User: Fold these one by one.
Assistant:
Number 1:
Amino acid sequence: MDASQTPATAANLVLLGPPGAGKGTQARMLQDRFGMVQLSTGDMLRAAVAAGTEAGQKAKAVMEAGELVSDDIVIAILRDRLAEDDCAAGVILDGFPRTADQAAALDDLMAEVGKRVDAAISLEVDDDAMVTRISGRFTCAGCGEGYHDSFKQPASEGVCDKCGGTEMKRRADDNAETVKQRLEAYHAQTAPLIAFYEQKGALSRVDAMADIDAVAKELTAVVERSTA
Ligand code: AP5
């Protein structure tokens, strides 16, 4: 932990929200602030696709179509990652769970190690704005820091603020047609988890239409309340 971080809370958080809501952006900011580890199942799956693993080969076409990868594959990937030592400091789940079966599996995985989901935070946004957010998104190929053509540009054009890398990339599934399918999958399969966590008394809602720093401020307050 460096001096700029708030002491570790060891909290386990779930970030819910449709594509483009800002889950990845905010998860990285919370990681920097509190020291929990960001776990993005999207990033893990893209790494599996790039590495050509069996899971990656199965996931590739599904992701390109904007549909959800099977629960079995995603739960297995997450189970392995959660068992790694750094997750003891708490995790920020970005893009998991996405189905009722994944949420039940997460409860079981947490219970096995005497933990639980301390807070589930729903990033609330308008679907219409998401296409603009996603079509303008690019990331640093070196460290994964996320940027946007209009909303978050690097201080020096083409140079990552975080690692100084100069290779930027755009995702294959960030096109208008696939985004539409991803939004449909979110509303059909993932949005019901908002009620699931509400019933457990673990849900907070955050207005994620505000600018990035304002959303981060609100999320920080939620995390501090959840771990007080
Ligand atoms: P995944 O990688 O999880 O993508 P996603 O959920 O579609 O979410 P995104 O990464 O597109 O958006 P985000 O909310 O992180 O937004 P970001 O912070 O980048 O999943 C991809 C695919 O993998 C899925 O379709 C599925 O096939 C598969 N998959 C993954 N997990 C799975 C699971 N659990 N089960 C089954 N399948 C799974 O922000 C977007 C842009 O907006 C950025 O440019 C950012 O700079 C900008 N921005 C962020 N916040 C703001 C703001 N407040 N104001 C203005 N701009 C903003």
Number 2:
Amino acid sequence: MKIAEKLKNKKVTLSLEIFPPKKQDAFESVKNTAIELTSLKPDFISITYGAGGSTQSNTSDLAQIIENSGTTALAHLTCVRANLEQLKSAIKSFKDKGIQNILALRGDFPKDAKEGENIFPSGMNHADALVRILKDEGFCVGGACYPESHPESVNRDNDIELLKRKVDAGVDFLTTQMFFDNDMLYSFLYRCQSAGIHVPVLAGIMPITNANQVARMVDLSNAYIPRKLLAICDRFKTSPEAMYQAGIAYATDQIIDLISNGIRGIHIYTMNKPEIAKAIIRNVDSIIAATNGE
Ligand code: FAD
């Protein structure tokens, strides 16, 4: 099913994200994770796309497994180190495997890039070009957005202007980068509305269940870490079980506040840990059901 249809029909959706294995011998284990996640009955599961190497076909393989188990899949696709032919072949493979939803991404500059390397041999150095190709192929297309601005952005206004360009290329919905302060999202949504961006925006929630995660997450996303979350990490960094419980509670609290304030899509970055998604869903399933009038 196309995700745009689900977003139209429900007041609140809940979706989950997994990443494919880097090494082929771990495929079976990630496949089992994906199947376990489908048992939580999310509205869809998204599968990230590696910027190089063997994980690329794993994205479409996992998406197909998820679809075959009766759960909608959202496959990610990036333009990094792929020429037009390779992108077209990846798109064909998604189509052949029955995937209807793709998150169109430019991708990050690889850390091992050599000076002068052409990272985007297709000529598509921004996601909007990929969005157009995918729309022409009949896919339901998502795009990424950044409540605290993309790290390469000149400024917040320019970031929103360029996001509008991507949405106008045909994006059906947006998924946000992780954020830990809901006010960052509310302020971003206000700026989106003012700029004429009216597609659904799904809020990306990253549960912090291990204090060491925080530095990595800031490095990855530039996200602001509120004092409350810093205090949790500081207080419980040496008690893994307490940190785990506090991290689940923090993510739960974020989600309840988002739903209370009318946010219609919650997307949980599961880090391939079904037990984390399970614990959070247990905390919010009645809230989501009640909001959806179930
Ligand atoms: P774009 O939309 O192209 O934006 C990149 C930068 O260029 C921004 O600064 C933007 O303001 C600017 N820009 C946009 N359009 C234009 C234009 N037309 N002209 C000039 N400037 C422009 N990475 C992976 O490798 N695999 C994944 O599976 C993956 N999944 C992700 C899922 C989500 C929800 C998010 C938020 C990110 C994900 N990423 C993934 C990371 C993503 O690839 C990086 O953040 C990347 O740097 C930007 O990708 P984008 O699609 O947002 O790029």
